[in-house]
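Supplementary Methods S3. Complex input for the zinc ion-bound model.
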Amino acid sequence: MGVLEGCRGPHKTPIPEERICPVCGAEVEVFTVRGRISADSTCECGYVFHAEEQYVSPGLQKIFDEAKKRVEDDG
Ligand SMILES: [Zn+2]
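Predicted complex, serialized as structure tokens:
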């Protein structure tokens, strides 16, 4: 497929993958690393496929969860 096909790169190489937008159903090309989205991709409808961080520590995840909860409480 690619010119670099003989070269087995590191497993972290992002590969393009089609994902279905949950909002409009369109196919959106996102870059993934071992099945996880490695970079934000925006659908033409505005939906954003957020990068799925692989290196989030439990402590950082807790901060995210609390921040999200705070926003919901304010609403
Ligand atoms: Zn969409």
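Residues 21, 23-24, 26, 43, 45, 47 surround zinc ion (CB under 6 Å). The chain has one helix and five strands.
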